[in-house]
Amino acid sequence: LPVAFLGLLLEVATAFPTSELPREDVEEGVTSNKPMRTTSEKTGEQISYLIKEVFELRKQLCKNDETCIKSQVAVSENNLNLPKMTEKDGCFQTGYNRDNCLVRITSGLLEFQIYLKYIQNKFQDSKDNDRAQHVQYSSKALIEILKEEVKNPDKIIFPSPTANASLMEKLESQNDWQKIMTIQLILSSLEDFLQFTMRAVRKA
């Protein structure tokens, strides 16, 4: 694996206590008789873990209020172009195309990075900030895993730095209420995107 990716995984591993990280079979394939897990299975475990962390972050934002957690956030005035799946992406049962789907998932997660950076900057409490940072690190680790599976990595779309800077400026210009609603919308959209991702990976 690339040195940069190994460094990223080390950062993820040290961000939280070991008990909060996905369990890895350290002796898998060495002293265990269990079959080796496939790449898709390992990817699925990483996605499941990230979904859990996003949900925990939403709970922290809502102060564990069930009505807040379950609410469908709609902030139409923001006109945020958050990543989502469409039929043309090849991730649905009809017209499923594994490589096109992986390209879309990877590109979508790259799009989410600027939003996750924004969220991290908004959490003042150290515990909330740590979890927000951990969600971003985990999503970056997932991106690197998916890149290894994509047959045509040149198709992956990387966000423009100029567009990201403009988006961040737009997000920062909101009033306090809009910022809270925007964070809710981002986390809810990311959770939905990851749920679609999980179903698509299981098809592989």
UniProtKB/TrEMBL annotation:
**Membrane-spanning residues where?**
none
- Indicate where this protein resides in the cell: Secreted
Which keywords does this chain's UniProt record carry?
Acute phase, Cytokine, Disulfide bond, Growth factor, Secreted, Signal
Q: Does the keyword S-adenosyl-L-methionine apply?
A: no
Q: What is its main location?
A: secreted
From the UniProt record, which GO molecular function terms apply? Answer: cytokine activity; growth factor activity; interleukin-6 receptor binding
GO CC terms: extracellular space; interleukin-6 receptor complex
Under the heading SMART domains, the entry gives: IL6 (SM00126)
Question: GO biological process: what's one of them?
Answer: positive regulation of lymphocyte activation
Q: Which InterPro entries does the record match to this protein?
A: 4_helix_cytokine-like_core (IPR009079), IL-6-like (IPR003574), IL-6/GCSF/MGF (IPR030474), IL6/GCSF/MGF_CS (IPR030473)
Q: Which cysteines are cross-linked by disulfides? A: 62-68, 91-101
Quote the function comment for this protein: Cytokine with a wide variety of biological functions in immunity, tissue regeneration, and metabolism. Binds to IL6R, then the complex associates to the signaling subunit IL6ST/gp130 to trigger the intracellular IL6-signaling pathway. The interaction with the membrane-bound IL6R and IL6ST stimulates 'classic signaling', whereas the binding of IL6 and soluble IL6R to IL6ST stimulates 'trans-signaling'. Alternatively, 'cluster signaling' occurs when membrane-bound IL6:IL6R complexes on transmitter cells activate IL6ST receptors on neighboring receiver cells.
Assembly, in brief, is: Component of a hexamer of two molecules each of IL6, IL6R and IL6ST; first binds to IL6R to associate with the signaling subunit IL6ST. Interacts with IL6R (via the N-terminal ectodomain); this interaction may be affected by IL6R-binding with SORL1, hence decreasing IL6 cis signaling. Interacts with SORL1 (via the N-terminal ectodomain); this interaction leads to IL6 internalization and lysosomal degradation. May form a trimeric complex with the soluble SORL1 ectodomain and soluble IL6R receptor; this interaction might stabilize circulating IL6, hence promoting IL6 trans signaling.
Which protein family is named in the record? Belongs to the IL-6 superfamily.
List the protein's name.
Answer: Interleukin-6
Native species: Sciurus carolinensis
